[in-house]
Amino acid sequence: MYSRIAGTGSYLPAQILTNADLEKIVDTTDEWIRTRTGIERRHVVAEGETTTDLAEQASRNAMEAAGVSPQDIDLICVGTTTPDLVFPNVGTLLQDRLGIRGCPAFSLEAACASFLYALSVADKFVRLGESKCALVIGADTLTRIIDWKDRATCVLFADGAGAVILKPCADPGIISTHLHADGRYKDLLQYPDGVSRGFKLVRAGKAGVLMKGNEVYKIAVNTLGHLVTETLAANGFNKDQLDWLIPHQANLRIIEAIAKRLDLPMERVIVTIKDQGNTSAASVPLALDTGVRDGRVKRGQLLLLEAFGGGFTWGSALIRY
Ligand code: ACO
Question: What's the gap in Å between 128 CA and the centre of ligand 1?
Answer without folding.
Answer: 43
